[in-house]
Specification:
The structure holds 2 protein chains of 2 kinds.
Chain A: H1 7-14, H2 25-37, H3 40-62, H4 72-85, E1 88-97, E2 103-110, E3 115-120, E4 127-131, E5 136-141, E6 144-149, H5 163-178, E7 183-189, E8 192-200, E9 206-213, E10 219-226, E11 229-242, E12 259-264, E13 268-269, H6 275-279, E14 285-286, E15 294-304, E16 317-327, E17 330-338, E18 361-365, E19 368-373, E20 381-386, E21 389-395, H7 399-408, E22 409-410
Parallel strand pairs in A: 6-12
Antiparallel strand pairs in A: 1-2, 1-11, 2-3, 3-4, 4-5, 5-6, 7-8, 8-9, 9-10, 10-11, 13-15, 14-22, 15-16, 16-17, 17-21, 18-19, 19-20, 20-21
Chain B: H1 13-35, H2 38-55, H3 65-84, H4 92-99, H5 106-117, H6 120-131, H7 136-143, H8 147-165
Helix pairs in contact in B: 1-2, 1-3, 1-6, 2-3, 3-7, 4-5, 5-8, 6-8, 7-8
Classes of the chains: A alpha+beta, B mainly alpha.
């Protein structure tokens, strides 16, 4: 293609006024970048990444025919960094099952854990909001106003129900972890560079096509194919990612005359030093978590709803200690609870026993044998019966990271 | 485009800020002409630079670092236009009124007005190729379009701006 440059026009365009930045611009930017730099994992990667970039550029020049497409592991790393560094993510969450019509929700989720999800369209009146500061979830649907207080910090207990993070973004991370050899291709999605991964879901004849925005590392589409035909999808339209937290209304107020229901899920936030007094036992705690994760919430419940699936419930949870560690939108949750008189009654608290998951691997936890579950149908997790306690560790982490956390657990 | 910039061996805030300073005038030109407002330009560039800083570990060297940074700036501008719902063209008259002055630099004002009347897609391509002297290939990488589309958009943009240069 012959390239032509209009030099007169170029000179005229360069002669147009361009405003200087506001006086405080440079200081604001420096503050913002330095704030990010306190995350050592990202910076270790930055150094390695920059070196790798030079090496890659050299390799591309030297071996122009060689493929430069990212591996599934690199995409998973990019997603982990994207989720870990995002201050807030917003957009329109779209869900569709086979030939059914789309359901659409406008959403915003925030690194503090607050979120708001609002149904779009006349047949989708649901509005759900969670205010992490007050630990109150409010939900308005079909004329009923529901308020849940005393929520757990995270799974497997009654935690705030962020569909976007738990069923969307988190599920994709789980799928990526479960399919380390997934085929990756580089595509353009909604005008932006993206990776697309193809991986089996674990169900017969089913495949998953996961699309990840390359710039932000945020998964934007998860499409399922059954026997090669479209079986369902979720996707995010109008994706917005900001390094700052979200501002917005995270607590709904009921309209006058509307039927109201309030549920207390039983968890109370405590300081770490108060855990033993509140739970009545010395808690098991991890002494190692991956870089960047910070303890965000500690809560105790004297009793809470049974864990597990509807088909196979565990005994009522008693004396539950739940710790949540945050890294951007990513969460890691460690829980302990009393087994009660018959430990053999317990099945996996995260999935129950009915959900078909891949055969768990063995893992060592505080001198006991635990199970490591990495499966596209579940949040990656470890669970174990450790003497009188049931322990769970759950989060969007690799098997190696979960093993290391489990190995570090001690009183 | 010059390709002096490479990720540093030990990237840190100072080195990233130095990279930003080297290309900042071009980024301001693009962002200001797309957004039409200094405060929005500053807000968008803050966001774009923060995104780039976070994403640097994932830079894979398939394009030059400067092109990659340019693309992030452009995408952030487009995100802002979509978010604010202001992806509309500004009429010549509106732009003149917004400028609020007619002085002896008639040609410059005419060019500003004609540029503002273009769609953001056309504005971006002419700024990248003619003002910042990117190759078609580099401009295509920034805009996420094929080089052939760069050529056709460029032709339309130049035609629209021609009158302002007479």
């Amino acid at each position: 293609m012959t390239e032509h440059r209009d030099r007169d026009l170029g000179a005229a365009l360069r002669g147009l006024d361009v405003p200087e930045h506001r006086p405080e611009f440079a200081a604001e930017l420096e503050r913002r970048l330095r704030h990010r730099r306190i995350r050592p994992r990202v910076w270790a990667l930055a150094a390695a990444g920059a070196l790798a970039a030079i090496a890659t550029a050299v390799a591309v020049l030297a071996f122009p025919g060689e493929s430069n497409v990212a591996s599934a592991a690199e995409v998973r790393e990019a997603v982990s960094d994207g989720m870990g560094s995002a201050g807030s993510v917003s957009g329109v969450f779209v869900n569709r099952e086979e030939a059914n019509a789309e359901n659409r929700w406008r959403f915003v989720v925030d690194e503090s854990g607050s979120f708001r999800i609002e149904g779009l369209g006349p047949n989708n009146p649901t509005v759900l909001a969670y205010d992490s500061k007050s630990n109150v979830e409010t939900w308005s649907d079909l004329g009923i106003f529901t308020r849940r207080t005393g929520l757990a910090p995270g799974i497997p207990d009654s935690a705030p129900a962020s569909w976007v993070v738990q069923r969307g973004l988190g599920a994709v991370v789980a799928a990526l972890l479960a399919a380390p050899d997934a085929a990756v291709e580089e595509i353009t999605y909604s005008g932006r560079a993206a990776w697309r991964l193809r991986a089996p879901t674990g169900n017969a004849g089913e495949q998953q096509l996961i699309t990840v925005d390359r710039e932000t590392g945020i998964p934007v589409r998860d499409e399922r194919l059954r026997n090669g035909r479209f079986a369902g999808e979720w996707r995010i339209d109008d994706l917005q990612v900001s390094s700052a937290g979200a501002t917005g209304v995270f607590r709904l107020r009921p309209k006058a005359g509307r039927q109201q229901k309030t549920y207390d899920m039983g968890f109370r936030r405590v300081r770490p030093a108060e855990v033993e007094g509140a739970a009545g036992y010395e808690p098991l705690l991890p002494t190692w978590v991956p870089d960047g994760y910070r303890l965000a919430e500690v809560a105790v419940a004297s009793s809470s709803r049974p864990t597990g699936s509807e088909q196979r419930q565990n005994p009522e949870s008693r004396k539950v200690v739940s710790l949540r560690y945050d890294r951007g939108l990513d969460q890691l949750v460690v829980t302990t609870r009393r087994t009660g008189s018959d430990p053999s009654r317990w099945a996996d608290p995260v999935t129950g026993s009915s959900l078909q998951v891949r055969q768990p691997d063995g893992v060592s936890l505080a001198g006991h044998q635990g199970r490591l579950v990495i499966d596209p149908n579940s949040v990656p997790h470890v669970w174990a019966i450790a003497g009188p306690l049931v322990v769970t560790i759950a989060g969007n982490l690799s098997g190696a990271e979960l093993r290391r956390i489990a190995a570090s657990i001690q009183r | 485009m010059t390709e002096q910039i490479r990720p540093a061996d030990q990237p840190d805030t100072e080195e990233f800020l130095a990279l930003v300073r080297e290309y900042d005038l071009r980024h301001r030109r693009l962002a200001y002409r797309l957004l039409g407002d200094r405060d929005r330009m500053d807000d968008v560039l803050q966001e774009a630079y923060a995104r780039a800083f976070r994403a640097l570990p994932r830079f894979r060297g398939t394009s030059g670092l400067a092109t990659w940074l340019y693309r992030i700036v452009y995408n952030t501008c487009i995100d802002e236009l979509r978010r604010s719902g202001s992806r509309r063209e500004v009429s010549l008259e509106e732009w003149r009124e917004r400028g609020g002055r007619r002085d002896d630099v008639e040609q410059r004002l005419d060019l500003e007005a004609a540029l503002a009347a273009l769609s953001p897609d056309l504005r971006a391509v002419v700024l990248l190729v003619d003002a910042d002297e990117l190759s078609y290939e580099e401009a295509a990488a920034v805009l996420g379009i094929p080089p052939g589309t760069v050529a056709s958009r460029l032709s339309r943009a130049r035609d629209a701006l021609k009158g302002a240069l007479r």
